[in-house]
UniProtKB/TrEMBL annotation:
Pathway where this protein functions: Amine and polyamine biosynthesis; ectoine biosynthesis; L-ectoine from L-aspartate 4-semialdehyde: step 1/3
Phylogenetic placement of the source organism: Bacteria, Bacillati, Bacillota, Clostridia, Lachnospirales
Superkingdom of source: Bacteria
Database matches in InterPro entries: Aminotrans_3, Aminotrans_3_PPA_site, Dat, PyrdxlP-dep_Trfase, PyrdxlP-dep_Trfase_major, PyrdxlP-dep_Trfase_small
Protein name: Diaminobutyrate--2-oxoglutarate transaminase
Swiss-Prot/TrEMBL keywords: Aminotransferase, Pyridoxal phosphate, Transferase
Keyword Transferase belongs to the record: yes
Coiled coil: none
The keyword Metal-binding appears for this protein: no
Protein species of origin: Coprococcus eutactus
Cofactor list: pyridoxal 5'-phosphate
Top enzyme category: transferase
Gene that produces this protein: ectB
Family of this protein: Belongs to the class-III pyridoxal-phosphate-dependent aminotransferase family.
Pfam short name (any one): Aminotran_3
Length: 414
């Protein structure tokens, strides 16, 4: 057994999830985690979206072990390697082309925020404008450029410097009476708006950390038209809600649109191993060699696991299964949780759902009770008052319902 005090004594105060889930974990499989005492937990957290295919997925693990045992190259920066070639070919032929998508792939680095940073740089380079627009309620990462896009005060406060050249548009759910597309057009057309024309608009089609706010198909189509009309790049951040989380591999597919650029990370790494991809239409590939770089953009295990993850996703109909399981969640919430005096609203898509309660204290008490009962589930949104349901996509129906039962009991104060 290990001492929990070891972490508080030696690990920096920046640690966060260990405070919400105060046990030492030793094993995990599928949609379950186990602590040092052998206690089992249903995982409704999924590594913040990095574990769409579950903990220690057998299919992906076998591919990774085989590669390790072959003494294949492990690190190569951006050199040409067999695993990279195999990933690129599979991704292009089996994922992008069947969807009619034509994008260049940039291995930006091992994190989602690096993919976002690279797209920020590229958008400004392409349009020769410094201003970027994003939405209130968004989360795009924790490095300096990504924080400038991110809207929550706590993340922004950690920057320590001014966060310039980004303007935040009210999200459409904030003011239902406000036509935000018309508002943005007014900002461009009114010579007294005081707001500069942006190079790009960054958007999460579902604001996950913002409280599970789903942008409508109609809004996404209107935004695509707005960007085309005004020579502005539409950039989708699919770091957390991509890789089939919303029921289609790319979250923007449901709207039938094609962004100019988009980012992928988290579950694209397959097992998960760290991988960040910046995707953009070929005409925007204006990079000079080495203009955006990083030592760990060539992690070969990530390439192996990513290809295996895509194979697993396609072979097991994960997109359709996610939509089916999403309906299980929807029906459960409507029947058992909507209308509870502690609950303001429920909302979501695919296997990403939010239960909004009145405040941070209420949400914290609910998730703490749920954890004691064997459910790992986090909070998100304004005032951390949204309980976020985000299990691995491979979770069984039985475990999904069992986890929802624990959540209901925790909401009821049990």
């Amino acid at each position: 057994m290990h001492s929990k005090e070891l972490f508080s004594e030696y690990e920096a105060n920046v640690r966060s999830y260990s405070r919400s889930f105060p046990e030492i974990f030793t094993k995990a499989k599928g949609a379950k985690m186990y602590d040092e005492n052998g206690k089992e937990y249903i995982d409704f957290f999924a590594g913040a979206g990095a574990l769409n295919y579950g903990h220690n997925n057998d299919y992906i693990k076998e591919k990774v072990i085989d590669y390790i045992q072959s003494d294949g190259i492990m690190h190569s920066l951006d050199m040409m390697t067999a695993p990279k070639a195999e990933f690129i070919e599979f991704f292009e032929k089996k994922v992008l082309e069947p969807r009619g998508l034509d994008y260049k792939i940039m291995f930006a680095g091992p994190t989602g925020t690096n993919a976002v940073e690279s797209l920020l740089k590229l958008a400004r380079k392409v349009k020769k404008r410094e201003m970027i627009w994003a939405y209130m309620g968004c989360f795009h990462g924790m490095t300096l450029g990504s924080i400038s896009l991110t809207s929550d005060a706590a993340s922004r406060a950690g920057a320590g410097v001014g966060l310039d050249n980004v303007y935040h548009i009210p999200a459409p759910y904030m003011f239902p009476e406000l036509d935000t597309i018309k508002f943005m057009q007014t900002l461009l057309d009114d010579d007294h708006s005081g707001v500069e024309k942006p190079a790009a608009i960054f958007i999460e089609t579902v604001q996950a950390d913002g409280g599970v706010n789903v942008f409508s198909v109609e809004y996404l189509k209107a935004l695509r038209e707005f960007c085309d009309k005004n020579d502005i790049l539409m950039v989708v951040d699919d770091v957390q809600v991509g890789c089939a989380r919303t029921g289609t591999f790319f979250s923007f597919e449901r709207a039938g649109i094609k962004p100019d650029m988009f980012s992928l990370s988290k579950s694209i790494g397959g097992y998960p191993f760290p991988m960040g991809l910046a995707m953009f239409k070929p005409e925007y590939d204006l990079w000079k060699p080495g203009e955006h770089s990083g030592t760990f953009r060539g992690i070969q295990l990530s390439m192996v696991a990513a290809k295996a993850g895509l194979e697993f996703m396609l072979d097991n109909n994960i997109e359709a299964e996610t939509r089916r399981k999403g309906e299980i969640v929807r029906e459960y919430l409507e029947k058992n949780i909507d209308g509870d005096p502690n609950v303001i609203a429920t909302r979501g898509i695919g296997l990403l759902w939010g239960v909004e309660v009145k405040d941070d204290a209420t949400a914290g008490a609910i998730t703490a009770r749920a954890f004691k009962k064997g459910l790992v589930i986090e909070r998100a949104g304004r005032d951390n008052a949204v309980i976020k349901i985000m299990p691995p996509l491979i979770i069984s129906d039985e475990d999904l319902i069992a986890g929802l039962d624990i959540l209901k009991a925790a909401i009821d104060g049990e």
